[in-house]
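[recover] target loaded
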C-alpha cells in the first residue's frame, strides 16, 4: 500500500506541477509528523 501511495503522490505532484521546494517542505513536515518530538529534538543539534 505504501508504494501505491508514494506513486500516487508523485503522479499528483507531476500533474499539478508543484515546485520541488514545496515538495521538499512537504517531505520535511511529513518527517516531523512521523518522527514527532524526537525529530524536533534532533534538528537543533544539526
Amino acid at each position: 500500500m505504501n508504494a501505491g501511495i508514494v506513486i500516487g503522490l508523485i503522479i499528483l505532484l507531476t500533474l499539478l506541477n508543484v515546485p520541488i521546494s514545496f515538495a521538499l517542505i512537504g517531505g520535511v513536515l511529513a518527517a516531523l509528523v512521523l518522527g514527532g518530538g524526537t525529530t524536533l529534538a534532533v534538528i537543533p543539534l544539526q
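[recover] notes: The radius of gyration is 13 Å.
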